[in-house]
Structure formats: structure tokens, C-alpha cells
Amino acid sequence: GYYVAHVRTVEQRTLPDFATAADNFSKFARMAQKFRVQRERRARLLREAEFAFDREIAERLVAGLRAKRASETGGISSEAVGEIADDALFSFAIAGERRVVSVAEFATHFNQRFVRRLTLDVDAIEDNAREMAMVALDLIEAKARGIDREPQFAEDRKNFLNYQALDWFEKERLLPDIEIAEQAVAERYAASVARFTQPVEVRVQRL
């Protein structure tokens, strides 16, 4: 006869009453409101700063990154930047002046980030450029409010820079010098195959 195999995971959930979920729902609502305010503030500041982005230059940068087989979590190499290093990628108004950021400056800023991820497309380049502009605009506001003179701010900034330096050393200097033989990887996988296997539940029904 014929057999039908069902591969599935069955899980039944019961929603709690509102009195039970009210506290968590309130936290979620406040978090959503916080993100909404942040997005609106970001859009307003960039609009007031007349943020301008050159997509043609960004397309050439993406082409360079792809040609050099750059990874999404790796840095932007000088080889990938190539001849457009001094070309303007974006600009914005800050402190009464127009700041123009070159491709090389953008690459340096991106490579110094402790946590970085860059999808190899123009929109991702623009998102990171906007983020770079927002960092500068936020710092201006922080200084205007005197936040940068608070002891905790200075301590957090020092610790952050230390982590940045360590991360840069590991990614750019330590990891490239580490060589692992393919045979060693195969043996490690064979010895730990259970850790890389996800069991599948199968139910068979005869018709």
C-alpha cells in the first residue's frame, strides 16, 4: 500500500490572561515606543543635516568588495577601495559646516567598529553611512549637554576603545596567522557529529 510520512513538531500553547501578561506587555509597548522615537529622531536629524549619499560611488565600492571576496563581518580593505579612496561617499551638515566623508574615511570608521556587519549591497553601505553621520551628530548633542564630562561616560568610552583594539588585533593580526588543516577539521567533525545533527521526528501512516 501507500505510506504517508509526516515530519512535524507539535506544540500547543495557551495564551495567559491579560492580568498575567500585563507587565510584559507594558515593557514591550515601552520598548516599541522607544524604538519609534529613536527612528523619528534619526530621520529628523539627518533631514536637518541635509544628508546626501552618492549611490554611484557606493556601487563602485560594492563592486570592489565583491571582487576581493570580502566577508560581511570582515573589514573594508584598501584593495577593495582602490582608486575611489578619495572620492566623496556622503556628506552632511554639522556644527555649521558641511562635512564630506570620503570612501577611505568611511572604510576606516567601519573597520574600527567593535561590532560590524556589512551586507554587500548599496543600501547596506548607505545604512552604515547614515549610522556614521548619526554618531557624529549624537556626539555634538552629548557634548552640548555636558554628558561627555561625566566620569561614567569617560570610563565607558575607555573600555569600549580597549575592546575595539582587542577585536581589531584578533581579526586583522591573529586570525589570519592561524592555519587549520582540513584533515583536522574533518576529524573534529567526525568525533562530534552528534553536535551538528538535528533529530527529525517522523510519523508514518499506512493508507
Protein model, in words:
- This protein has 207 residues and is α+β, with helices and mostly antiparallel strands.
- Helices cover 55% and strands 12% of the residues.
- It is built from seven helices and five strands; from the N terminus they run E-H-E-H-H-E-E-H-H-H-H-E.
Question: What's the gist of this structure?
Answer:
The chain is α+β, with helices and mostly antiparallel strands and 207 residues long.
How many E strands? 5
* Spatial strand order of the main sheet: 2-3-4
Order of helices and strands: EHEHHEEHHHHE
Using only C-alpha atoms, the radius of gyration works out to: 25 Å
* Amino-to-carboxy terminus distance: 7 Å
Report mean pLDDT, rounded to a whole number: 77
Q: How many strands, which pairing sense, and closed or not: the largest β-sheet?
A: 3 strands, antiparallel
Helicity level, as a percent range?
Answer: 55-70%
